[in-house]
């Protein structure tokens, strides 16, 4: 699968980053006469940086078009960009900055590569869903996840403790509290986790988690425990719920 370019001047397909364009025999002849240093192919490190930059461009465009309006990149394009960025992060073993994770993030796009339902395979999320990461002590904070309708008139949200694993760029969490609001009606329940609101003695074998392969000021990209990919856009301060 290649990274499509749904708009003119939008983003190059990733294969273009791996080979020089076909310039014709005249241009190739001229290139042959140039100094040897100009004929050298990009190094593996330079090529990796170009691939990551192209993928980041697509994801930034998708997040901006989703939140501010505009033409969105196609689902297959965004999915490929997420895969490429994840592959580059693994190859380079890049560590994420936990401080950039804190705040509110709006879910933009999800891709489930295992589903047989074409409507769920690659989709811009149709309603407002957002996650909030709240810092705590010693890499343990709070994870808040909610789906909102008509602003905050109606919502379904849950929260619980979260733990950052820096070596794996992974956030492990559990759900212990649920809250539902519809107009003036509000219902809240705590104590959902039978093991209590703590992560002590628990591992990723039993806990849900997200592995982040890109945490930036404006976008967030992760893969969940179930294998799905997700793209988020940071919520501006004046739009927080």
Model description:
The chain is an alpha+beta fold and 241 residues long. It folds into 2 domains: 1-94, no CATH class; 97-239, Calycin beta-barrel core domain (Lipocalin), CATH 2.40.128. 25% of the residues lie in helices and 32% in strands. It contains 5 helices and 11 strands, in the order H-H-H-H-E-H-E-E-E-E-E-E-E-E-E-E. The protein has helices at residues 24-32, 44-68, 75-92, 98-101, 118-121; strands at 103-111, 122-124, 128-134, 140-149, 154-165, 170-173, 177-182, 185-190, 209-215, 219-224, 229-234. The longest helix is centred in the first third of the chain and has 25 residues, at 44-68. The two termini are 38 Å apart. Residues 1-35 have low confidence and may be disordered.
The proportion of residues forming helix, as a percent range, comes to 10-25%
What is the count of helical runs? 5
User: Average pLDDT value?
Assistant: 83
Overall outline: globular
């Amino acid at each position: 699968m290649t990274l499509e370019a749904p708009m003119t001047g939008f983003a190059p397909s990733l294969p273009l980053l791996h080979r020089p364009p076909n310039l014709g025999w005249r241009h190739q002849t001229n290139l042959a006469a140039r100094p040897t240093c100009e004929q050298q192919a990009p190094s593996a490190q330079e090529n990796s940086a170009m691939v990551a930059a192209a993928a980041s461009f697509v994801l930034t465009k998708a997040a901006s078009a989703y939140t501010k309006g505009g033409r969105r990149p196609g689902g297959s394009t965004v999915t490929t960009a997420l895969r490429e960025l994840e592959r580059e992060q693994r190859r380079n073993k890049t560590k994420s900055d936990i401080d950039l994770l804190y705040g509110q993030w709006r879910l933009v796009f999800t891709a489930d590569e295992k589903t047989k339902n074409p409507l769920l395979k690659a989709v811009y999320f149709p309603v407002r869903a957002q996650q909030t990461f709240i810092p705590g002590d010693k890499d343990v904070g709070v994870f808040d996840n909610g789906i909102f309708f008509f602003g905050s008139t109606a919502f379904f949200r849950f929260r619980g403790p979260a733990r950052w694993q820096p070596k794996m760029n992974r956030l492990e969490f559990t759900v212990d509290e649920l809250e539902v609001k519809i107009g003036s009606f509000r219902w809240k329940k705590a104590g959902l986790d039978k093991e209590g609101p703590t992560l002590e003695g628990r591992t990723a074998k039993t806990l849900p988690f997200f592995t982040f392969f890109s945490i930036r000021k404006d976008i967030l990209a992760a893969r969940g425990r179930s294998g799905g990919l997700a793209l988020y856009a940071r919520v501006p301060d004046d739009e927080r719920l």
